[in-house]
Predict the 3D structure of the following.
Amino acid sequence: MSNERNDSRSDPQVSDVYRELADERTPEHLNREVLRMAAREGKTRYSAMRAWIRPAAWAATIGLSLTLVLQLSDTPQPVPASTPVVAPAEQDRFEAKDNEQRRDGLAKRSRTQLQQGQPAEKISVLNDAPVAAGAAADDNTSMEAAATTRPIVSQDPETIPKSEPSAASVASDEQQATRVPAAAAFSAESTSLRSYADGLCPLETRETAENWFECIKAIENRAPRDLVDREYEEFWKRFPEFEDPGVDR
Amino acid sequence: MLANADALARLAGAPLSRGAVLAYAPRMGHAPEDSALMLRYKDGDIAAFEVLYQRHTDPLYRYLLRLCRHRDTAEDLFQEVWSKIIKSRASYRPTAKFSTFLYRVAHNCFIDYTRRNKRHAHDTEFKAELHSDPGEQPETSTERSLARERLDKALMALPDEQRDAFLLHEEAGLSVDQIASVTGSNRETAKSRLRYAVNKLRTAIDEPTERT
């Protein structure tokens, strides 16, 4: 206050005399009245609210947390029905097994082809066919190869007469052995496509018409349409006399 | 005077009692500013209001007492002013100095009072108690006493606007700009009023004893 009084309009003598003159104090009853009024107004609106606001905030926080926890614990974890949950290690094992089976299958197929008199180049293409079909669907050579492969694969390996491996088949096996690591590097998606290219239904289901047909029916909605159609085509080629039980004749 | 003297000592330099660090929280070791106290009171801190009230009560009372020159009226206005301050706490924003805000309310209350009571606006009932300092020499005491008496008379004789400007300067410690803001006038007007008031009072004090 005194700093602001240092003004050109101030007169120290006038100020001094005024200070001596003006020494009145606020009456006590006024002080009491004003402070009582302040306390009353302050309490009615804000103090009561302030007293409750913290406990209320804590209660709300705890309540909401408990509700959330209970809700989360009651919610069932969604498990996809179609795909079984496989641990990564197990999945790796399955993939390795799958690759092994595929390698065996390809070796058998190449042997069969050789027995039927097909040239070595064609065998090489056939061996590549599953991989190529998975990698590039629009590759005509691959698709053609895949289509050509199917009747051969559909044959029961047990029924195929075994013979001594020729030089060409040995070469093919070696060639295949070098290709397998490259095929194993493909993703899970391409692996599943390769299985489609080999034939949608396993060989054991193809032994009887009923089993094969049921298998095709079962996978009909899950597999790509064109592959299912091919499977049907193969089926009807092999069992032309089969009667579909679902069709009224 | 105040019911809670401990609260005053605590509030004078203490940080906020509540855990939250607010924007207007004072720095440690510094007395909280008026605006900070008012904001604390806005949040329900009664002790903050008590400190604020203690700072301003006597100057405000003297301002109103000498402005309206009537003790009962001054007391009524005093209560009215604090009542308005208390009620306006919810909308209070520390945009200006609190004392400017306080004295603007007081000034407006006085203007309203004079408009309501035009007939009694110039009744002079209040007379200052003139007492001398016991330590003073008799001659000096007489001179000072006379000076006080002359100043008191001259102050009462001043036009309301000039007296208002002088009292705002002396009691509230407001600058010319702040006086202009409180009285709703421009700076030059406020400056002139204050200068006239001071000159008249100085002349009254310096008057030869024979003439008084």
User: Anything to note?
Assistant: Chain B touches chain A through 53 residues (CB under 8 Å). Chain B has two domains: 1-122, 139-206.
